[in-house]
UniProtKB/TrEMBL annotation:
The lineage of its organism: Eukaryota, Viridiplantae, Streptophyta, Embryophyta, Tracheophyta. Substrate binds at E817, F929, T1025. It comes from the Eukaryota. This is xanthine dehydrogenase. One of its GO terms (biological process) is xanthine metabolic process. Signal peptide: none annotated.
Amino acid sequence: MGYTEAILYINGVRRVLPDGLAHTTLLEYLRDSGLTGTKLGCGEGGCGACTVMVSNYDRTSNTCVHYAVNACLAPLYSVEGMHVISIEGVGHHKLGLHPLQESLASSHGSQCGFCTPGFIMSMYALLRSNKTPPSEEEIEECLAGNLCRCTGYRPIVDAFRVFAKTNDALYSGLSSLSLQDGSSICPSTGEPCSCGSAGTCNGDRFQPISYSETDGAKYTEKELIFPPELFLRKLASLMLRGNGGLVWYRPVRLQYLLDLKAKHPDAKLLVGNTEVGIEMRLKRLEYQVLISVAQVPELNTVNVNDDGVEVGAALRLSELVRLFKRVVNERPAHETSACKAFVEKLKWFAGTQIRNVASIGGNICTASPISDLNPLWMASRAEFRIINCSGDVRSVPAKDFFTGYRKVDMESNEILLSVFLPWTRPLEYVKEFKQSHRRDDDIAIVNGGMRVFLEKRGQEQELFVSDASVAFGGVAPVSLRARKTEEFLIGKSWNKGLLQDALKVIQSDVLIDENAPGGMVEFRKSLILSFFLKFFLWVSNHIRDVNPTIETFPSSHMSALQPFSRQCGVGRQDYETVKHGTSVGLPEVHQSARMQVTGEAEYTDDTPVPPNTLHAALVLSKMPHARLLSIDDSAAKSSPGFAGLFLSKDVPADNMIGPVVADEELFATDVVTCVGQVIGVVVADTHENAKTAAGKVEVEYEELPSILSIKEALDAKSFHPNTEKMLRKGDVELCFQSAQCDRIIEGEVQMGGQEHFYMEPHGSLVWTIDGGNEVHMISSTQDPHKHQQYVSRVLGLPMSKVVCKTKRLGGGFGGKETRSAFIAAAASVPSYLLNRPVKLILDRDVDMMITGHRHSFVGKYKVGFTNGGKILAYDLEIYNNGGNSLDLSHAVLEIAMFNADNVYEIPHVRITGNVCFTNFPSNTAFRGFGAPQGMLIIENWIQRVAAELDRSPEDIKEMNFQTEGSITHYSQHLQNCTLHQLWKELKVSCNFLKARREVDEYNSLNRWRKRGVAMVPTKFGVSFTKTFMNQAGALVHVYTDGTVLVTHGGVEMGQGLHTKVAQVAASAFNIPLSSVFVSETSTDKVPNASPTAASVSSDMYGAAVLDACEQIKARMEPVASKLNFSSFAELASACYFQRIDLSAHGFHIVPEIGFDWESGKGNPFRYYTYGAAFAEVEIDTLTGDFHTRTVDIKLDLGYSLNPAIDIGQIEGAFVQGLGWVALEELKWGDAAHKWIKPGNLLNSGPGNYKIPSINDIPINFKVSLLKGNPNSKGIHSSKAVGEPPFFLASSVFFAIKDAIKAARAEMGLGNKWFPLDTPATPERIRMACFDEFTSPFVTLDFCPKLSV
């Protein structure tokens, strides 16, 4: 029945797969085999970090096929008999990089590097699978399933664009990229160059040749080929086992499959495992029998005939797209209306990696109520052909197949055999619809499929509806037919009157309960009407050719039909290079880039573990506020691999922890105060066994009242102790009472939180040495010193016996500043007590649930101003949601208060703030640290002032700008204020007045699509506001070969800190950058380091390194002055023989800063980074969909240390900010979301929490650095860059609001101001565009619910 052995080739190496691994994923197998370049980012196929290429021999077409897959979802045995190429099989920094890797590294497309291997592999698979070079559109599409949180995507797209069709020489059969004139194509730029002979760009190893269908479609001359053994190997059935009695079958004949189904009626059938894998891994469902049907020929058939097309149920979605595209080209246009609809729908269905493995049958039989395809099958008259175990086949119309929530008309002894899609007829039209939070790779909020078949009647040849289908997803527990609507349409004449009548019917036909799961009820109801309007207009437009006399709609209404068609993005970067020494000021490539693009760069989870290592999983609270009555671990103890459960009673020393105030417990003792609070930690022999055992720990609770929003906290006066603050300037009350203010407005601004979504989850590896006398750890943290402190505290060890090391982070953004420390502390307890290494890596869902987010805020303002637009008084009450412990919430509040003025001169200011205690996991630092929230409040009411005065917001801003010498509300004088120059240059660069005119003209011609523009300034103060934290240390060694080793207290997390610091050292010694190496951050090298945060690290650690270098140079100077040394190595060696110390500890303190809260005076910031941004957006007013057409950013960074890295930080910060203002919404179980379990986070993974994808970046993305403005207070005249650009993304938010204003004007609302909460999701955009399709469900002042 099977082979003597199951085999798999990985990177050309043959491996025999043992029995017993049916529970194992391909990713786990790769990583356990030492191939750690493939990363675990989410475990649900949503981030692309685990992408690999799978190659197999298709015996139907006799070709090799290559495709990208998510290794985190692929069962190991699903790739048996195939060739898997991981990032390690593409290129190596020692042996040579592939052109893809070289291009990405040199284009600055890798920052933290954690996502980089996945991007490389997606692009690699595209090139290997294409006979011809891909188009730029195909490149962007193939990357849609890969997420990056650092770069903003632009440099990644630029790096890969050189492999597009534009230059045929790259893909011809010419050897070694040679052109006719003897020059070569540079793989980094795609342009001719002469460096090929020197080997600096394209060495001998990677040189493209032609595509080949017989040897594995080789892309380069030394590419890994498809193993010949796999060509000759005959496909056979498999039966293999896994943990817990799991059995894996792979039938290769239909009859054997039917026999298996008869024997195992409850077996789960799978192809891509994209649904079952998530159920088993994330939902912890247990299935005993899995049957992989991917290799059953009868389920992969394609039959195209005169009646339609029949496709096997196991056909992959990517194959379905190719099939439908082919028949659209080959068949008459009137026959393929449904096929075109499927092609369009599948374009936005998941990512490429998912489409490559997910099957038609799996998608259908899952019967998800939000399935993208099922409503379309229903509308298209499709038939599902079902076969039972006896071989009997029956057909069921798709419209009758779905019987209830995840229930279908299929018995346990039946399987879906195939799907038949009939050709459409003349005058029959099928259209698809979908609206989701994010356009790319997102589940639908509402989707639909609609069909109408018209016939001509009478002498006038009037068109009547002969048949109709209307189906929706996302409106009921099942894909729903609008039966009354269908019945109403049939027999009616197709005219304007029918549209209005049908809209009334559909309102009563499709009903959504007020507390329906998923929420957004009003939005979903409006989408149903909007979709039908679009369908009616679309059909009416198509039949004009048939019936020119039909009633037409105004041309402006045709904007409802404009499909989203994204042009390939264009980026421009403009900066000056001010070189200092050998390296400072140059756009050097990130020092780890070449290792990151090959997957060789190590992160915490990649570290080889010592023998006898245990894996840990946390036991977490399931209640937001409850008393712990009992903890039963009896079931956990009998779980496989269990090694121990550790609770508060087991903590060797102090159970109380906290970064500022020790107000949180490491392990809960008597009471839990949030869902996700740690109760204990389980250790076991594997990660999965630890999770399983932790899940078996039974905790009994007594529920207590909980506070689940800022509003509830204010009502209950629930605040963290001693967190009330106030800042004053002038006399607000007197100004309001005087006659100075012509107008006074009051209002409230609220904004949701944001998940950090660093690509690398939290993790620590802890071990003891010297018999348990010392504890060492490797952690993914921005603050190793904090880890050292926490572990020292809970174990009762002196800090001198605890060492924390950090090599690099896969992103941090503030989320790994304090909230990583309790994870290390939790792992340290079992490690210390058992004297064994313990590794604790959080799964993405747990990470998102328990480690805190950007704070949600509420600001209540009162503002007085003149009729001329001058702001006179500003009174603000500001509150943030601190969660269940203080963490850094107080400091975040203070920064929000400092930045509440943004860039505006206001004579009278009073700001009071407080930190709310709520029963949520403690919120924490995030890029901007409260400043964006404070600035967003003032920018909101600036817009309102403009609306009140019927002026442009830009005018109001300009007349209230601060200037040189302005005194802030915290008494700091502004020096070297470049705001006016920046703003003026940006206005010229974006041609603002022209852009405004063009947008107004567009809006006048388009009813259902609107554009908007906005300009936003920012002023970001740079320093830790706690004076003692503004210190930095570094250790510099010079070796006798002239190389330099630097260690400092800062952490490299993708921001390029180590590269900039190395540049400082290289320039100080006047040596090449390649001669400087920056080692890992370690508490035993540089003690007491402040966290890598607040954008100050380049300033502080650069200065500390420079101090150390200057000390060494001063010692070397007497030797250097005596002789003429030909190299630095000669000088270093000479100094060594003269017994001169070539090692130095450098130190730096930031001068002239400090603030006294009692007096409200001081200089909390060393200097300010100024910036401004322009944005133009376009919205679909019927659905709330939007895209950013243009962004123009200008920032003052003094003399940049490294303009390429700084540009990358600006773009990355902006796109992350774009997520905050427009895409990313955290939904909690609170009063606003009663359908979510109280205190629980709904979106705990990329499946339902959407960060920006490659499709969301601005189409035109320009970044400029202000020239000729050195900063005398920064290292080598530079300025901080990490956080300041983040807030500039609010320009997109206000451009969206500008577009909404144009939509509301169509309803006679003119310039009337309206609130818009952040994030401005499609729901909020759509519902703010008040019109006849929302008015049946909401009033004019409706605001969608928001968790704050």
